[in-house]
Specification:
The chain is of the alpha/beta class. The chain has two domains: 2-138, Response regulator (Rossmann fold), CATH 3.40.50.2300; 149-296, no CATH class. It has twelve helices and five strands. Helix 3 links the parallel strand 3 (49-53) and strand 4. It is globular and about 55 Å long.
Length: 297
């Protein structure tokens, strides 16, 4: 099962992710700290189950669910809340919530609910497959609109568990520019130029481009580090995991991933000692998205 967690509380997200991973319930393909920030990555990744907090800034859990459904999201929702108001709980159920997880987070409750949700999801998928088979003659042959560069990047980052990280938007801006406007071939321009381009694109009238460029570099570095942690965690659990097998050796120095895996297995997480090669990561991401984009268009 593929999970996505939306909660503005860091401790809750960390605990839920740990329970899912340690209980072999599936993988967490992304996280977001607010409903507004979760919309794009969820629609791009299309996870099976979304664990979403009821009360959040900007968009609350119910409003976020409504927007996702309006955009065609078909996955299941599990609401996270410490609210016991019957009216709010009733509204959540009418909007499509399948189960509730109560705060403070309890491991036994989470494991039980997620197992039930997974069984229900698999049953629905089986029924859907049967319905699609019966209706195959009436299936529309209209070709789907190709994905945009943004959607392609988010999908790729989702497989590495970082679609919801703050640096993902900076990466999207860089890749969009490289694919559509850069004419330097397969080799990247200096990273400094890419950071400055992204800074100017985000805020054309920014007074201190150099300061924002440095902030972009740090956000991208932290995001890549999160990808290393995610893939190493997958590899430590299942060395044959398809996401681990594909992304770990292509986007990173594989020995760094192996070292990180060993630290995790030994109960350590020495992220400060991991070498983050931003240029290699962006280079591979650019070439993959460029190839997919030109194939689609």
């Amino acid at each position: 099962m593929r999970f996505f967690i939306v909660d503005d509380d860091t401790a809750s997200r960390t605990m839920l992710k740990k329970i899912i991973t340690e209980s072999d319930l599936g993988i967490v393909t992304g996280e977001a700290t607010s409903g507004a920030d979760s919309l794009a990555p969820i629609l791009a990744i299309q996870p099976d189950l979304v664990l979403i907090d009821l009360l959040m800034p900007e968009l609350d859990g119910i409003e976020t669910m409504e927007q996702l459904r309006a955009e065609g999201f078909q996955g299941q929702f599990i609401m996270i809340s410490q609210v016991v108001n019957k009216e709010m709980v009733g509204e959540a159920y009418t909007k499509g919530v399948e189960f509730f997880i109560h705060k403070p987070i309890n491991r036994i409750e989470v494991q039980s609910i997620l197992k039930k949700a997974a069984e229900q999801y698999r049953l629905k998928q089986s029924l859907l497959t049967i319905q699609e088979s019966l209706a195959s003659l009436a299936f529309s042959q209209t070709p789907k609109k190709p994905a945009s560069i943004r959607e392609m990047v988010l999908s790729t980052l989702g497989h590495m568990g970082i679609a919801g990280e703050t640096g993902s938007n900076d990466m999207i801006a860089i890749i969009e520019w490289l694919v559509t406007q850069y004419h330097g071939g397969s080799q990247l321009p200096p990273l400094k130029d890419l950071y400055e381009m992204a800074a100017m694109k985000a805020a054309p009238h920014q007074a201190d481009i150099k300061k924002e460029s440095k902030a972009i570099e740090q956000r991208i570095r932290r995001t890549i580090l999160a990808a290393i942690h995610h893939l190493a965690s997958l590899g430590a659990v299942d060395y044959t995991n398809p996401d681990f097998e594909y992304y770990a050796p292509r986007y990173f120095d594989f020995q760094e991933i192996r070292n990180y895996m060993k630290n995790l297995e030994d109960g350590r997480s020495e992220s400060s000692k991991v070498k983050v090669n931003i240029k290699k990561f962006l280079q591979v991401l650019y070439l993959e998205i460029k190839e997919r984009y030109h194939a689609a268009y």
